[in-house]
Write a structure and sequence with these properties.
By secondary structure, this protein is mainly alpha-helical. The chain is built from five helices and no strands.
């Protein structure tokens, strides 16, 4: 996340108003709910995990054991079970 000096983008009157609440600190302004992206959407990591999980499920259905899947994907047996048995 890149920090921006408020003086560069906000009107002076708004900066002065904000300074009544916080000075020389960081203020996080969240995105509107309609513009919020889910975790992993921007980086594409969510799609990668979905593809990996589909591969794990397919290999399990083809007869690969949970222990072998855990070793192959460097995940715990518990994590593999969660992937396989997810609703």
């Amino acid at each position: 996340m890149k920090y921006i000096n408020a003086n560069e983008i906000l009107p002076n009157i708004l900066v002065e108003e904000l300074q009544q609440y916080i000075q020389a600190g960081y203020l996080y302004i969240p995105a509107k709910a309609t513009q919020h992206k889910s975790w992993g959407e921007l980086s594409g990591y969510r799609k990668e995990l979905k593809k990996r999980n589909e591969q794990i499920i397919a290999q399990y259905r083809q007869g690969m054991t949970i222990q072998d899947l855990a070793a192959s994907y460097h995940l715990s047996i518990y994590a593999i079970r969660k992937i396989i048995y997810q609703p």
